[in-house]
Write a structure and sequence with these properties.
Elements (H helix, E strand, L loop, with lengths): L1 H11 L6 E3 L3 E3 L1 H7 L5 H19 L3 H31 L5 E3 L2 H17 L1
Antiparallel strand pairs: 1-2, 1-3
Length: 121
């Protein structure tokens, strides 16, 4: 259940608020990457990986497959999401309170932790 829930959290996290900007509103990871002029393949990769992990865990009959998927997606996704959060916080330090980190990165990291713990258990 941890792998299913964690995968679902990772899959929806790019659609949640990643940055709250005064006067502009909330930006999802897709909007944030578009605004930075970057491809949003990383956001789609998170959606695909989280969905795949949740589906494998929900429908999987082989415990080894579920464990492996939870550990691999949880650990790799967690490292990338943590890196993205740290990078985002460093960037937002320079805007002097005009923007703040939203819930998206924390949901992604929480989902990855849940998957890793579920895979380990």
């Amino acid at each position: 259940m941890l792998v299913v829930g964690g995968g679902a959290a990772l899959a929806i996290s790019p659609f949640l608020t990643w940055v709250k900007v005064i006067l502009l509103g909330n930006l999802s990871l897709f909007q944030l990457l578009d605004a930075a002029g970057r491809a949003n393949s990383l956001a789609w990769a998170a959606v695909a990986a989280g969905t795949a992990a949740a589906v494998v865990a929900f429908r999987g009959r082989n415990p080894s497959t579920v464990r492996g998927t939870g550990l691999v997606v949880g650990l790799l996704g967690g490292v990338l999401a943590t890196y993205a959060l740290v990078d985002l916080r460093n960037e937002l330090r320079e805007v002097h309170g005009l923007a703040a980190v939203g819930t998206g990165p924390y949901v992604a990291i929480g989902g990855c932790i849940a998957m890793a713990v579920g895979g380990w258990m």
